[in-house]
Each structure stands twice: as C-alpha cells, then as structure tokens.
Amino acid sequence: MKYLSTRDRTLRIGGAEAVKLGLSRDGGLLTPEAIPQIDGAFLEGLTGASYPERAAKVMALYLTDYSEEELLEFARNAYGPDKYDHPAAAPLWKVDGSTHCLELWHGPTSAFKDMALQMLPQLLSAALRKTGEDKTACILVATSGDTGKAAMEGFADVAQTNIMVFYPKDGVSAVQEAQMVTQEGDNVGVCAVVGNFDDAQAGVKRIFSDEAIRKTLADRGYFLSSANSINWGRILPQVVYYISAYCDLLRDGEIRMGDKVNFCVPTGNFGDILAAYYAWRMGLPVGKLICASNQNDVLTDFLRTGVYDKNRPFHTTMSPSMDILVSSNLERLLFDLSGENDAEVRGYMESLNGSGRYEVSGSIKKALAERFWGGFLDEAGTMETIARYYKDCGYLIDTHTAVAAGVLEQYRRATGDRTPTVFVSTASPYKFCGHVLRAVGQEPKGDGVELLDQLNAVSGVAVPRRLAALKGKARRFDLTCEKAGMDNVVLDFLK
Ligand SMILES: *Cc1c(COP(=O)(O)O)cnc(C)c1O
C-alpha cells in the first residue's frame, strides 16, 4: 500500500515513510491510495480476538511495509496490562438496549489520545529503521493539555526519539500540568510558555519552518518531527476501535452480522470521527456518523450548509480539547468525497487560508448529508447531560463525552432514528474534576489533584491509578519561557 497527498495524487510513498514525514511537503495530508475492504468473515475472525490482535489485523491492511507479527508486538506493548487498566483496552459500557458508550480512556494518561499515541512512537521508531534514517527524531508538540502528556508518555525512552512539549502557562488544568511536569524518561522535556495555546502553537510552527535551526539540529544529528493528529500513524490506530466495538456488539449478541450501527463522536480536529468514516469505507456496517461539537460549532454549520467558515468568535469551554476552529483532518474527508480530486481540495484549502471560508460542491454536500449529521451542545447542556447520566445511570462522564451524549439525544429527537448507537467517551471524568463535581451538585474544594479524592467520595468510582499516583510524585520540570525564547529551549534541549 502506497500513500499519496491530498494536494498531489501523483505522489507515492510507503507507509513507514508516511509515518516518518507526518505531513506531505506540499502541505497536504498523507492518505492511503486505496481503502482496504473487510467483510463478514473478517469481522467474525476478530470477534473472539484480543484487542491487540484486532489492532494488528486491521493495521496490517494499511501498513504493508510492517509485518503483522511486528504490529502485534507493538499493539501488545501499547494496550497490554502495563499500560491499560482494562483488559479490553476499549470496552463498551451498555447504557440501554440501543445505546452504548465506548470507553477510550483506560490508558496511561486517561484520555483517548493514548489509543494512538501508544502506537505511533513504536511505528515511528520502526519507520526510522526501515527507511535507514540515522538521525534522531525530535518531536515538538504544542498542547492545550491532553496531547502533550499522551505524547510524552508514548515517546518516553523510545529509541532514536526525543520529545519536547510546550504548554500555555495558565491554559491547562492543574491535573494536566501535574501530569506533564512529573513525566519520567530520559528523552523528554516540557516547558510552560507565557501566553495562550495559539502562542505556543505559533512558536512550534515557527521553529519547524526555521531553516537555520533545522541546519544546526541536523549537524547535531537531529531532525524535527510531529506527533499531531494529521500523522497517518495517529489516525490508523483509531480506525481499530470502531471495528472492535462492532465485534464486541456481535459477541455480546447486541446486534447481528450486517446490522448497521451509528457512531456519535465528540469532535475537535476531526481525527477521531474521520477514523470512523474510514471504518465505514472499509465495509463496516455503519449508519450515520454523528459529529458532536461544543459551542465552537463550525463543523455543525459545515455539515448543515456545506460552507466552512472559521470567521466567528472563539469560545473557551469546559471541553477544551474541542475548542478548535480549523479542523485539519477534514481535508482527508474532502479528498475522499471529491473522488480524490486534488485540485478541488487545493482550491478549498487556499480559500480557507485566504478568506477563512470555502463552500463545497453540490456532490460533496449530498455525500455529507448521506453519511453525517452535525450538532452542538452549549455549556449548560453539557452540565445537564453529566448530571442526567449520573442520576439516571449512576455513570460519570467527562465534559467531552457529555457533548457526544447530549448531541446524540438531539439527533434522536430530530430524526427518530433508533439504530443501535455507540457514543465515544474520550476522557476520564477525573481529568476534569472541577466541572464534573459542579455538574453533580458539589462545590469543588480546591482545584488541584486534591479534587480526585472529592470526586471519588461522591461517585465511588476508582481514581485511575496514575492520576492517584500524581499526589506523591516529584516535579521533574520547572521550565518557563517567553514566546520568543522557545527556540533556545529547543536548542538547549538538543545539545
Ligand atoms: C482530542 C480530543 C477530542 C477531539 O478529538 P479530535 O480527533 O481532535 O476530533 C475529544 N475529546 C478529548 C478528551 C480529546 O482529548
């Protein structure tokens, strides 16, 4: 299987190379040249398999320059008992006869980013070997919270890699900061930037495009790489859990082979829901893909009108990982829906860069309406949904998951569709203790890791062990820099 660019369909590179590059040089996203097809027999075969076995079988269809044994070893490392607190890695929780919640937060950092970021470092490390690369990859990450920690945890002590994370000084939760500054590993670094997330992100982009820094680093034996969700190595491991959820529903007798299932996904950069789309394109029986946004409802409008327009206020919400106005992975969807028309995609992206908006063709609008439904939930709705789930089911959900659960209710009211539906749970409620406590009617006492115990006393649900361990953990990093000082932090880190 080769990979091409959404902005140049004549490009052909191997899977390992695509993982190593992250982004195509023309600015496009690297995308498989064909979508492998699966059938009932393939799904039957996976139904009795473990999560790592399912992951290896699915990923082998796309990464043909890795062996299935190799992928199985990576998946066992990624999703095994050292890393995942649940033997199923991505278990379903049954809400009622037609509603299931896919819990993706049993990994080391309690957010769904682990599902991909426990695999990507191993895929990258192997890619360096496969492509004969002798330099060390230095991963630069700007994070608003979840990605930075998950990436550090994934890359810690992985051969031939280093990772440096920048986060906005006052822009992450107390638990998120504690998670990052206590990270172990000899190849990790983290620094707070005086400014907001955009400042940190702009700084990282500037370093990436600075030829002088690249040259200095190359002389020292490093090249810069990225772990954000435009890397194919992050999308592919996410395709696995949609197929796995279908197999679990089959195994548990909730559906019969061939029955359609809807997925409802809380969405920011459009990576997670894009993976669900690929699962459908592979032949998984999927009905609707329900795209759930918070108050930043640019995708809701897009799916309803075919006009993508980022010219609107940016809202800081209690589901910060979805506070995004430019959803980068949408480009892969447009490429597929346009019949792989790279010129058309280039046109949309140029228009987005210029005026901040574009309108898709009539045929893309039609295809979007067939497969997707978009909705958004405001802050009050998010709180109400957490409270309702707690009261009616005794089940605690985090703010991001609540957006999905609430939008699913809107969808059912609007359409009357009762197809069995899986909504995706992307973070443990313990990552957002303050909001969750307030939602269930408690006044938070403090704002740091002490809230873990308070939420535990209210809910009786066990605190994930690594979050509980944060309390006694020594701070390893205490670095702060100004925006303009980020370059020097990187150069010091890679001495
Ligand atoms: C990243 C993230 C999302 C959004 O996922 P995308 O792939 O960016 O759409 C949702 N919830 C949580 C908790 C996240 O960390």
What tags apply to this protein structure?
6-stranded mixed β-sheet, 16 strands, alpha/beta, 495 residues, binds pyridoxal-5'-phosphate
| Overall morphology | globular
Strand order, main sheet: write it out: 4-5-15-10-11-14
Largest sheet: 6 strands, mixed
| Structural classification | alpha/beta
Gyration radius from CA atoms, angstroms: 21 Å
> Strand-residue fraction?
15-25%
Helix content: 40-55%
Low-pLDDT stretches are: none
The average pLDDT value, as a whole number, equals: 95
Number of DSSP E strands = 16
How many helices? The count is 22
Q: Which ligands are bound?
A: pyridoxal-5'-phosphate
Distance between the termini: 38 Å
Give the gist of this structure:
With 495 residues, the protein is α/β, with parallel strands linked by helices. Helices cover 46% and strands 16% of the residues.
Outline the structure in words.
The protein has 495 residues and is an alpha/beta fold. Helix content is 46%, strand content 16%. Strand 1 and strand 2 form a beta hairpin. Helix 1 packs across helix 6, helix 3 (51-62) crosses helix 4 (68-79) and helix 19 packs parallel to helix 20. It is globular and about 60 Å long. It binds pyridoxal-5'-phosphate.
